[in-house]
Amino acid sequence: VEAVHLIADGKAPRIPQPEEGATYEGIQKKENAEISWDQPAEALHNWIRGHDKVPGAWATIDGQVVTFYGSSLLDASVPAGQELAIKGASRPGLVTKNGLVIFGNDGKMVLVRNLQFEDGKMIPASKYFSADETTALELTEEEKKMAEDIR
User: Fold this and answer.
1) How many domains is the chain partitioned into structurally?
2) pTM of the model
3) CA-CA distance, 118 to 32, in Å (whole number)?
4) Which Pfam families does the UniProt entry name for this protein (predicted)?
5) In which band, very low, low, confident or very high, does the pLDDT at 94 lie, cut at 50, 70 and 90?
């Protein structure tokens, strides 16, 4: 009760909180989330995972900012895949059937499952080279009839 009266009367002591020992981290900005490639695979994984979903860890691929989501450490032999040059990486990534495999400076691998482009479009990393392909939707006779009924 006494504290409430002191506050109401404007006489409560004001003690500034010291910043030493504070654990609050400021809001992360996209420009600070670029992937630094000169790290071991575990550090790359932690960086991507730590920035997943906001703001998203990113790298430049084919002159475009691409954001990486859904990483996991990959402890296996190097899988077969199509090479993908990533700006700053000492070794190209591999687009495989499971996603994009990237390499740390220790030679170990990280698997990234999803990629998002600057326009906001997100794709499975395994579909990177087929992202521009468009397929026509073909309806069966039954589906055509249903579509006509709905119209």
Assistant:
1) 1
2) 0.70
3) 16
4) Formyl_trans_C
5) very high
